[in-house]
Amino acid sequence: MNSELFVTDCGVITPLGRGKQAVAQGLFAGSQRGIVARADFLPARTVEVGAIQESLAPLPSALAPYDSRNNRLMQAALAEIAVAVEDATSRYGRDRIAVILGTSTSGIADGEEALMHYRREGRWPEHFDYRMQETGSLAEFAARSLGLTGPAYTIATACSSSAKVFASARRLIRAGLADAAVVGGADTLCRMTLNGFASLEALSKGRCNPFSANRDGITIGEGAAAFLLDREPGPVRLLGVGETSDAHHATAPDPAGRGAAQAMRDALADAELAPETIAYINLHGTATPLNDAMEAKAIADLFGSRVPCSSTKALTGHMLGAAGGCEAAFLWLTLNPRTNPERLLPPHLWDGVPDAALPVLDLVGGGTTFPLSPQTAMLSNSFGFGGSNMALILGSGR
């Protein structure tokens, strides 16, 4: 049996736009169209966030108990891969396709609105159902939406959630519990998240400025991505995964970057690749002082200063539980000649002021290209609260 797994299709919606082509166009142009000022999240404070501007249709009536903004984002991503999923069901059956998705806050924004309604009116909104905000319902909703009856569950490991789904899905397929899998994730802007990061004094006063000497915190965003993981050949391959949990601190990263570096080493070993074969790294790059310092050290120790890198969070904000999946989508769009015929790398947007305390990284500017070959491999990092680290390597397909 073929042990190779391909990421045969991708659906994505982020502050850069809706759909593969729109997101690719914004990504390679370094667009910040979705970074906007909002005054409705924090008391007496306006904050920049990465917000999706496109309207989102309500879910079908049969899925009304799940009709949150978070699930509407997920539905938009799933719609792009629906044909590929149907093709897979004809090969394997609906009970042989798993659904594994990641999220962090899920539909809590809808719960916040419902609670405010309750406080005003003394009753819950008629349309409100707990499943709109329940963390584990994301995969249940997606499986019902796609008509799939295989294993379905949600991963919630903070900012690594929708990256870890690739590793989980591969384990299911290799164990013979599924033949293919729908993976990805979604997360949505909400008051709880913004106020939580504000209480940690981790929000940027403006837009995030990754790896700059002037960085002062993160910009929060929202998004969703969906993929079909299959043995059938496709434009992108899943080459390697590396998962570690260093449990250094509830919110702060290990300053030495040991868990992050081990995740990258494990991903390289899993892919049977040397560090010098990686053509590009999508950095976790949150623009907090501690996280960027840790990641810069881990990258420099393993790769030196030769590998092109960028953080795309200045384009989208930090999409939290959706970040790993959406940034995997950015690798997919970069590696796929149909969405990136000019072979451009996602640019690193910042003020250009390096931090002398950090190792030098090759932070790519706009218009930077890479040589595409059947051996091209790229890596994406996702590091979550509590030391949940994930490194994912994707490569050219066939």
- State the CATH topology: Peroxisomal Thiolase, Chain A, domain 1
Helical residue percent? 25-40%
User: Into how many domains do the coordinates divide?
Assistant: 1
Shape: globular
Strand portion = 15-25%
| SSE pattern, N- to C-terminal | EEHEEHEHHEHEHEEEHEHEHHEEE
| CATH homologous superfamily classification | Thiolase/Chalcone synthase
Query: What's the main sheet like?
Result: 12 strands, mixed
Radius of gyration: 20 Å
What's the CATH first level?
Answer: Alpha Beta
Outline the low-pLDDT stretches.
none
The number of distinct helices, counting runs of at least 4 residues, comes to 10
Structural category: alpha/beta
Protein name: Beta-ketoacyl-[acyl-carrier-protein] synthase II
GO molecular function: 3-oxoacyl-[acyl-carrier-protein] synthase activity
Family: Belongs to the thiolase-like superfamily. Beta-ketoacyl-ACP synthases family.
Keywords: Transferase
